[in-house]
Amino acid sequence: MTLRTGHTGLNVTDLDRSLAFYRDVLGFALLAEGKEDDRRYAFLGDGGGDEQPVLTLWQQAQAAYDRGRAGLHHLAFTADSIDRVREYETALRAAGVDFAHDGVVAHREGASSGGIFFHDPDGTRLEISVPHGAENAPAPHASAPTCGFF
Q1: Which of 27, 36, 40, 81 could in theory staple to 59 by disulfide, Cβ–Cβ 3.0 to 4.6 A?
Q2: Closest CA to 30 of 21, 38, 39
Q3: β 125-130/114-119 pair status
Q4: Rounded Cα gap, residues 133 and 131, in angstroms
Q5: Closest CA to 131 of 61, 75, 80
């Protein structure tokens, strides 16, 4: 048996704010939502007709993401083209999102893969990238991988 990633669950401080970000800015579809005061959550899908959750949001966090604690380093999504990555970048900038690097960057010096690196409303580090198409993009670090969020 080979294991695969099923869905990713993120603790958030404000479900309404995070749901708006992941649904309205990144385009995830709302599959189900729990609205009880002490049990708020949202199951999000990719909008492709498959009713399987890709991402779940749990309103359980008391504070923003802390990169100094063990756990999630960053969450990476793959787009189908570099043009689509740039469309996401435009939408994210319009939403006032904080970026880790300026625009599309290569994963490392000389790589054809790359993308954008940014933060969600709770500071969770996110990536949208492509395996090819970023050949001409700069690499922010000479030797460390860009997805390291250094």
Answers
A1: 40
A2: 21
A3: antiparallel
A4: 7
A5: 80
Contact in structure between 108 and 129 (CB atoms under 8 Å): no
The Cα diameter of the chain in Å comes to: 50
pTM: 0.92
Within 13 Å, how many C-alpha atoms sit on residue 102's CB side? 2
Distance of alpha carbon 34 from alpha carbon 9, whole angstroms: 14
Write out the catalytic residue numbers: 127
> What is the three-class DSSP state of 137?
coil
The per-residue pLDDT for range 44-102, each reduced to its tens digit, is: 998 777 788 999 999 999 999 999 999 999 999 999 999 999 999 999 999 999 999 99
Write the CA distances from 128 to 2, 80, 104, 117, 146, integer angstroms.
25, 10, 9, 7, 12
Encode pLDDT of 2-13 as tens digits.
888 899 999 999
